[in-house]
Protein: Inositol-1-monophosphatase
Amino acid sequence: MFMNNDLNIALNAARKGVETIKSYQSKALNTREKGHHDLVTDADLETERNILSYLKEHCPDDMILAEETKAHEKLSGARTWIVDPIDGTTNFAHDFPVYCVSVAMWENKEAQVGVVIEVNRNEEFTAVAGEGAWLNGEKIRVSNTSEPKDAFIGTGFPYNDLSLVESYLKLFRHLMDELQGIRRPGAATFDLCCVACGRFDGFFEYSLQAWDVAAAALIVKEAGGVITDWKGGDDWLFGQRIIAGNPKIHQVLLDRVEEFIPIEQREAVV
Structure:
């Protein structure tokens, strides 16, 4: 596995997050809603504090964008760490196994390093721009599935933005018939990493935030996958809509989104 200083920092920061999460797995959680169906726990908050403390110690001049503290909302060209302390908080709060820590470093508005750790399986997905992607130190690649009938994909169900539900359900109904299978693990970072290592052939979702995709999208791209927004463009980090996949299945999903989702719904209203 290719290592550089930034990847080492990202890995160590994410591992500190995992340690914190595991310390809460046998405790009663304090949970509240920060938005409609959008949970936050005391574990999220402490995990983020510990990750950010490590990053600030080792990279004191860098910017930070994190889910719970949101140090700033947009990217300049400066070095910026983008952190999701627990992606899959609802899973975590219900002791359902899929939840991840995500740490990315962006510079000049491009992802440079990405780390996603799935806590329960202790799977460490990593990528460095231009150097490739790995799972627990082993090189990974997207699948070579080309036919929709053979495609196994991930998605996310709408939970706090229901404005697209009718269009989404029409798309979902069509894909249920066209594809081999669809799954919804409940953590977009994990879904994207499953694309990167070939478990999923594709993935699409809307209402995502930058910290949900900043690390995992780089992992997909470095594994040979394609990442776009729902218009086939590059506005996926803050655009709240993403399609990922191997090149063939990505195109299938993009075509179906264009077929079933009205053009005015293919980008977020901000």
